């Protein structure tokens, strides 16, 4: 302090007083420079790339440096950005739509000042709207195949939207959002959907989606359905995969399901067994739960994207490029056909094989791989929900009610919510108190006591009549079965979609399991899916609301 006093010409007492008042020695001398968007983004990228020894300590230091430089409310948005929960009402699809609009209104790669600033001024409103929709579709389709703004934006600025398909293409190492299926509630619904078109049935395995990439350098990467890097979780898969490759197979992207596998009985084990594996940085020598890869699709092979080919062609390439290795790498069990009898027989086989049911897919017509879409060209037929709701729901736990009687000391009930991806909020959908064993209630109580919050989050939407005894952070997703769905004046799920002022609730909900494979609360069933499930019920078919958003869209 004496040195600082001498260097600054201030008295020692004043230096001491300022240090005490500001509680930070460094700030009393030199205020850090103001944060800029470019600086913060650069630091975020540095943090994301850190790995190896002392990576956590280094990340903490970087984050601390950002916090020291924060002013006003900046720290709040730094924290939200780092946790991936910005919550400013700006979804990914909104960003893409805005980029497309900007590029169309003021075409890039013009000399300065640009000659065209507002292209819409020279077009009719209808013509511009149609043109904008066409260009936005090109951008969104490109981003599906190449979900990396660092690659897309430079091309957009240099070549415009028209140049994107030629310069930003599918490539190994960059994870894709997978194609997803729509639920059904019976074989008749499936047959009506495909009419006379060819389709194929595949076993629906109770495992974890694994997108496996091999780059030109021979590096193998494994990604989850949420594009999370799971490579370090599966060192055993990486070590064994070479045995399944034909000599001509150099680069690829596989869509597969990783399942827990009993090598003695050669049978699939429940997902709960798979979920006990270490989530990352696993050591192959320490692995107890063995996995088998069930390969069902091939999206890229030896420099060529296959997503526009039909499923029949992709399957032929899959089988000719890879070799089955028992208990390690196998092709999904499938059967082609177009009859109810074939489907029922195969469904029975899947149940005997410890599977969840069937995936029914278009084989030749409308059978391309639709990246980032929940498509009606893939349908799931679950064994437990035929002629019922058609599917389970994955819901977030946001509150708890104290138990009484035998449940005293635990939570006797829970408040659950779906996720509205348009408004970035969790909407209440039901109170749940059934389906739990005593052991599960104890487990839930121990888990959620670490996630209690004093007040509900600003992005929780609920009715005060449902206010729980305790609020929880949205950290865990549960799979829930119900008898049916109904319009609710109290619950807020899908409010404004089916009814302008009322939401949707579940009747007789029942707990099935924790969705260990869904690590982000935003992976819960979304509001538009809830609305669609409600509308598909027989009792509401005659009054179907035409305003429902189609789920055959980018998610």
Automatic annotation (TrEMBL):
Residues 536-545 have a biased composition (Polar residues). GO terms for biological process: cell division; DNA biosynthetic process; DNA recombination; DNA repair; Okazaki fragment processing involved in mitotic DNA replication. Residues 284-420 form the ATP-dependent DNA ligase family profile domain. One of its GO terms (cellular component) is mitochondrion. Coiled coil: none annotated. CDD domains: Adenylation_DNA_ligase_I_Euk (cd07900), OBF_DNA_ligase_I (cd07969). It comes from the Eukaryota. One of its GO terms (molecular function) is DNA ligase (ATP) activity. Its EC number is 6.5.1.1. Keywords: ATP-binding, Cell cycle, Cell division, DNA damage, DNA recombination, DNA repair, DNA replication, Ligase, Nucleotide-binding. It catalyses: ATP + (deoxyribonucleotide)n-3'-hydroxyl + 5'-phospho-(deoxyribonucleotide)m = (deoxyribonucleotide)n+m + AMP + diphosphate. It holds the Pfam family DNA_ligase_A_M. The keyword DNA damage applies. Residues 536-555 are annotated as: Disordered. Belongs to the ATP-dependent DNA ligase family. PANTHER family: DNA LIGASE 1 (PTHR45674:SF4), DNA LIGASE 1/3 FAMILY MEMBER (PTHR45674). This is DNA ligase.
């Amino acid at each position: 302090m004496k040195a600082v006093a001498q260097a600054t010409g201030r008295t020692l007492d004043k230096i001491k007083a300022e240090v005490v008042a500001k509680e930070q020695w460094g700030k009393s001398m030199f205020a850090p420079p103001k944060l800029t968007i470019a600086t913060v983004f650069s630091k975020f990228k540095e943090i994301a790339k850190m790995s190896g020894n002392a990576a956590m300590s280094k990340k903490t230091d970087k984050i601390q440096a950002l916090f020291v430089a924060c002013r006003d409310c900046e720290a709040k948005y730094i924290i939200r950005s780092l946790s991936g929960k910005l919550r400013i009402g700006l979804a990914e699809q909104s960003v893409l739509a805005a980029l497309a609009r900007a590029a169309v209104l003021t075409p890039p790669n013009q000399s300065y000042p640009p000659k065209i600033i507002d292209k819409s001024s020279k077009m009719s409103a209808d013509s511009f709207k149609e043109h904008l929709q066409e260009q936005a579709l090109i951008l969104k389709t490109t981003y599906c195949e190449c979900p990396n703004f660092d690659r897309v934006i430079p091309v957009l600025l240099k070549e415009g939207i028209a140049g994107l398909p030629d310069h930003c293409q599918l490539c190994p190492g960059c994870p894709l959002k997978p194609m997803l299926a729509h639920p059904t509630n019976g074989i008749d619904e499936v047959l009506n959907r495909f009419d006379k078109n060819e389709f194929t049935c595949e076993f629906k395995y109770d495992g974890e989606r694994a997108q496996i990439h091999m780059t030109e350098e021979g590096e193998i990467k494994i990604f989850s359905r949420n594009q999370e890097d799971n490579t370090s979780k599966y060192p055993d898969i990486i070590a064994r995969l070479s045995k399944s490759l034909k000599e001509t197979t150099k680069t690829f992207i596989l869509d597969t399901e990783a399942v827990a596998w009993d090598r003695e009985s050669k049978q699939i084990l429940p997902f709960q067994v798979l979920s006990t594996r270490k989530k990352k940085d696993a050591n192959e020598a320490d692995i107890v739960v063995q996995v088998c890869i069930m390969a069902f699709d091939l999206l890229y092979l030896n420099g060529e994207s296959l997503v526009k080919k039909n499923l029949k062609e992709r399957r032929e390439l899959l089988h000719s490029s890879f070799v089955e290795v028992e208990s390690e790498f196998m092709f999904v069990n499938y059967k082609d056909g177009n009859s109810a009898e074939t489907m029922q027989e195969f469904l029975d086989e899947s149940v005997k094989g410890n599977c969840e049911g069937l995936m029914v897919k278009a084989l030749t017509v409308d059978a391309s791989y639709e990246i980032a879409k929940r498509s009606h060209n893939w349908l799931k037929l679950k064994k437990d929900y035929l002629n019922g709701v058609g599917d389970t729901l994955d819901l977030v736990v946001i509150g708890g009610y104290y138990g009484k009687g035998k449940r005293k000391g635990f939570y006797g009930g829970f408040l659950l919510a779906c996720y509205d991806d348009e408004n970035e909020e969790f909407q209440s959908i039901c109170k749940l108190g059934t389906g739990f064993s005593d052991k599960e209630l104890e487990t839930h109580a121990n888990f959620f006591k670490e996630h209690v919050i004093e007040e509900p989050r600003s992005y929780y939407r609920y009715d005060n009549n449902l206010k729980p005894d305790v609020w929880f952070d949205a950290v865990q997703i549960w799979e829930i079965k119900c008898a049916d769905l109904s319009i609710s004046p109290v619950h807020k799920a899908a409010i404004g979609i089916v009814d302008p002022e009322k939401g949707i609730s579940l009747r007789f909900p029942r707990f099935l399991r924790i969705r260990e494979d869904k690590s982000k609360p935003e992976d819960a069933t979304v509001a538009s899916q809830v609305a669609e499930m409600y509308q598909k019920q027989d009792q509401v078919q005659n009054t179907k609301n035409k305003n429902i958003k189609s789920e055959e869209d980018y998610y």
